[in-house]
Amino acid sequence: MDFSLTEEQTMFRDxxxxxxxxxxxxxxxxxxxNEEPPLEMFKKAAAQGFFGAPIPEAYGGVGIDWQSYVLLxxxxxxxxxxxxxxxxxxxxxxxxxxxxxxxxxxxxxxLPPMAAGEMIGAFALTEPDAGSDPGSLTxxxxxxxxxxxxxxxxxxxxxxGIGGVFVVFASTSPGERHKGISAFIxxxxxxxxxxxxxxxxxxxxxxxxxxxxxxxxxxxESNRLNGENHGWEIVVRAFNRVRxxxxxxxxxxxxASLALGVTFAAERKQFxxxxxHKQALQNYIADTAVDIEALRGLVRHAAWLADNGQDYGRAAxxxxxxxxxxxxxxxxxxxxxxxxxGFSDExxxxxxxxxxxxxxxxxxTDEIQRYVVARGTxxxxxxxxxx
Length: 387
Hints:
Blueprint: H1 7-34, H2 39-47, H3 66-79, H4 81-101, H5 104-115, E1 120-124, E2 140-144, E3 147-158, E4 163-171, E5 181-187, E6 193-198, E7 209-220, E8 224-225, H6 231-267, E9 269-270, E10 273-274, H7 279-307, H8 313-338, H9 349-355, H10 366-379
Helix pairs in contact: 1-3, 3-4, 3-6, 4-5, 4-6, 6-7, 6-8, 7-8, 8-9, 8-10
């Protein structure tokens, strides 16, 4: 199992890094302070192929492999987690769900504009009373002439305010829980789709998160995704993808936090010497560096499994679980290295500190990831456990 980058993967990494350092870095603070997505920068990123990176060239994408895709998420996460997660929701959850199970007509209609960044994707699964338990969702889809009528409320929908197309999940067989969920492709201008207020969040302030309402929203039969009562299959595969993507973004954020801490420690003097000479701070640096390399291994391993057509769900949950904690610990320790300055918004470490907390919630909480890992570990021994 060789994780060395190929010449092509190295080329992609350098492209991603160059754009992120030149374009994304200069919009990150503005997006955070003004609580708005950097839409003009998104257009530039789309022109570089970032919004369609893993989409096949036949549908307007770049067609990169998983090892290259996690490099993109890593470089985005280094500069701006809000941007990294915007792209992850659009690509890993929305566009790749259509690629995964959509009809050829659906792929031809939606993937080219999504790959070009002309139509941003959103993923509407979570509800006020159905977060970690999607089987409890109450949004209904009732058959009507020529399609389905959706009624319900979706919460915490990322990209909702800038989205052009939504992958929406609704119950088509009430009482069947996961087995009764279906998925639909809903365009933003569909009558009955109402975009609600934007959430005020602790971090990720450049990510557009909203409540979305479906009020007698009629979707044509041609926009049903993967047939009736097969929505849960889409959710499982989408979560595997986004968990790996988020783990890679966490890796980037942890690397950025470490770089900020090292730079500050080398420049800041106390008691007549640079604080980099203080063993207590050296311990913080060492612990963080070790966590970063461990996380890199988990991300690369899961991406290798994905590229080689193997089941990577458990590996993605491992990477996501460890990544959320590693990024949180990195930001926390590097803020401590900054001392009182780290508590000021004038220093970027405070933004990373706020942003990384969401990584332990998005795409399934830490507790869900631990369950997935534990279940897989028991199953290796032929033992089945209940949620």
